[in-house]
Design goal:
Elements (H helix, E strand, L loop, with lengths): L2 H4 L1 H12 L6 E5 L6 H13 L13 H7 L6 E4 L8 H11 L9 E5 L7 H12 L5 E7 L7 H4 L3 E4 L5 H10 L4 H10 L3 H9 L1 H19 L1 H10 L1 H4 L3 H22 L10 H10 L2 H19 L4 H15 L1
Parallel strand pairs: 1-4, 1-5, 2-3, 3-4
């Protein structure tokens, strides 16, 4: 994964801090899910321990970098919520660890994910910990909701705001991970996280869902009634919960946007399905496609309001059938 491409501003600031030897004892990475906070945190930890940094980046080859990759570094501690929250005993355990010197050097680092989910007791304990920094320690706190954190904690850390990763950057990173172009394009528009995109691809569910979706489109092109039957009989089992049903709506949005791009003479990305895109382009006017995309947005809202999934799909296909 190209960390610097995902968050160029933050990684540049981190490199400058190392270069100028002005590393702060504690950092807060704040941003939306999928913005790369955890990936950058471990990248920064590697640079902190790295034996042979190159241009203020971790070399990725030394024993320190490799041990962090394998989550087997004795002086790097990672904390995440135990259930719904981070509890005081987790912070106390961390404090006990930091009373001792590092196993192989004086350096120690800890990363706390979802730091905003700490209990009040845990937050107060962490605050005291931050007030007594060890000159050779590094704290990296991660949050998706900075507003839920104590102001006294925020005032004691260097805050880095992470920007939402663009679909274009995600697409390139997913290609670099070895995904085929069509899968990379779909996933870069469904999720804003390279990690989540890879996880979805590895799940048998997503591959089944993708195949069912395109099979249904092909059926619709030849026999709209057959597509309705397929939706009624096969879709409920595959798109079986609210999150998966929202993914199906995202797939519809991506598809009709591609057809619209084709109508407008713009470059399309789903090249594996170029013939099917051409078929739809020949049967839908630009205004029809815009109307269908608006219907997809409405369908998403209906699903959030617990409207029956099959009813929402039937209404969407009916809109498309009338337009065709």
């Amino acid at each position: 994964m190209d960390i610097k491409a995902i968050q160029p501003k933050v990684t540049t600031l981190i490199q400058k801090a190392f270069s100028n030897q002005k590393l702060t004892h504690a950092y807060l990475f704040s941003g939306e899910p999928g913005a790369g906070k955890k990936d950058v945190a471990f990248w920064m930890a590697k640079r902190f321990f790295c034996l042979n940094p190159i241009h203020n980046e971790p070399c990725m080859k030394c024993t320190e970098c490799k041990r962090i990759d394998s989550t087997n570094h004795p002086d790097l501690h990672f904390i995440e919520p135990d259930g719904q929250s981070i509890k005081i005993e987790q912070i106390r355990s961390l404090q006990r660890e930091f009373h001792f010197k590092g196993v192989e050097s004086d350096k120690k680092c800890y990363i706390i994910e979802h730091v905003d989910r700490m209990t009040v007791q845990a937050a107060n304990s962490l605050l005291k910990f931050l007030e007594e920094p060890n000159g050779t320690s590094l704290a990296i706190l991660l949050t998706e909701n900075k507003n839920r954190m104590l102001d006294t904690i925020i005032s004691r850390v260097q805050v880095y705001k992470f920007q939402q990763v663009s679909s274009e950057v995600l697409y390139k990173n997913l290609l670099n991970e070895g995904l085929d172009p069509d899968a990379a394009y779909l996933l870069s528009n469904i999720t804003k996280s390279v990690t989540r995109g890879k996880e979805l691809l590895e799940e048998a569910w997503f591959l089944n869902a993708k195949n069912l979706f395109f099979n249904t489109l092909e059926e619709f092109a030849n026999n709209p009634f057959g597509a309705v039957v397929k939706i009624q009989t096969e879709w409920p089992e595959v798109f079986s919960d609210k999150k998966k049903q929202q993914v199906s709506m995202q797939l519809f949005a991506i598809w009709f946007q591609e057809v619209l791009y084709s109508q407008l003479g713009r470059r399309v990305s789903l090249n594996e399905h170029a013939q099917l895109i051409e078929h739809f382009r020949n049967h839908f006017l630009i205004n029809d496609l815009v109307s269908i995309l608006e219907e997809v947005v409405t369908a998403k809202e209906k699903l959030r309001s617990n409207t029956n999934y099959i009813l929402v799909l039937e209404q969407l296909l009916q809109k498309a059938s009338l337009a065709a």
